[in-house]
Amino acid sequence: MFGLFGRNKSKDQLKKRLQMVLVADRAGLAPGKLNELKNEILQVIAKYFPGDENMDVSLEQEGDRMVLTANLPAKQV
Amino acid sequence: MNAKAIVVTSGKGGVGKTTTTANVGAALAQLGEKVVVIDTDVGLRNLDVVMGLEGRVVYDLIDVFEGRCKLKQALIRDKRVENLHLLAASQTRDKSALSEERMRETVTKLVDEEGFDRILIDSPAGIESGFQTAASAAEGALVVVNPEVSSVRDADRIIGLLEARGITEIKCIINRLRPDMVRRGDMLEVDDVLEILGIKLIGIVPEDEKIIVSTNVGSPISLDKEKSGAGDAFRSIAKRVQGQEIPHSALESKRGLMTYLRRILGIG
């Protein structure tokens, strides 16, 4: 953890936590709800594309608007 | 800044709104502007003691609002620097005595009739009526942020509320920065805070023991001729409020080559 090439800096953790919580604050959605939303979307996708991994749903700030982004690499048959 | 009436706010309490108001106000007056600082923290006034003017408060903002005195009578002239004035909050009333309409009227009078160049409005903590009244008469805002979790989160909320009021000239003051902690990676860097909040920087104030000393004696550190981290920072902020381009100190970015080398060598 305190290796020669930098350690796990507490400020990086704080930055990530703040970015997460502010996305939820700005969207007026409780962070727990946001996670539920993500999980539900992923469940629905999994129903149609079973076995796919590496799927990710995130809510991000893009300029002055919030964007719900889903990264869903559907399997090629 | 184009704004004459500027609210100093933060959401969270204890981050340095009042100290910032006193010091930037004093520095602006020293630069020749006719300045009034207004305390809107009704019931919990402190700008008077931070500035060392507590013994001279006779009338306050609520007396003005409710017509018990003339606006001129409530203006306390600071004797240390020409053109610096204080309009104190009432200590015996509560925030329900505030009125957005009276606040706007008062600020208009201060500009049009009393000829003030700059009005700094010290907002109470929180997002309720006290903050709303303080913001109601402002054209611009100085958002004071400490580089820690609750202050940044609250600042984000405040920025949203200021924008909802149509205030667009919003500048960030990063207060109480500890360069040693930033170097260790245990405190957010200036760039991190600005990236998260998405607003422009107007100044970085380092944590400085001298601030406590200056408030102990009721004399803004920005008026002190002696060099100090915080005093210099507040004077620079005042100049930037006037539109001067003053480079930010080296505290702004710790991503220089030396820092990188030190980090690699494990001596950072």
UniProtKB/TrEMBL annotation, chain A:
Protein name, as recorded: Cell division topological specificity factor
Organism lineage string: Bacteria, Thermotogati, Deinococcota, Deinococci, Trueperales
Statement: the UniProt record of this protein carries the keyword Hydrolase: no
NCBIfam families: minE
Database matches in Pfam families: MinE (PF03776)
Gene transcribed to yield this protein: minE
General function of this protein: Prevents the cell division inhibition by proteins MinC and MinD at internal division sites while permitting inhibition at polar sites. This ensures cell division at the proper site by restricting the formation of a division septum at the midpoint of the long axis of the cell.
Keyword Cell division: yes
Top-level taxon: Bacteria
InterPro entries the record matches: MinE, MinE_sf
Keywords from the UniProt entry: Cell cycle, Cell division
Record-stated family: Belongs to the MinE family.
One of the GO biological process terms: regulation of division septum assembly
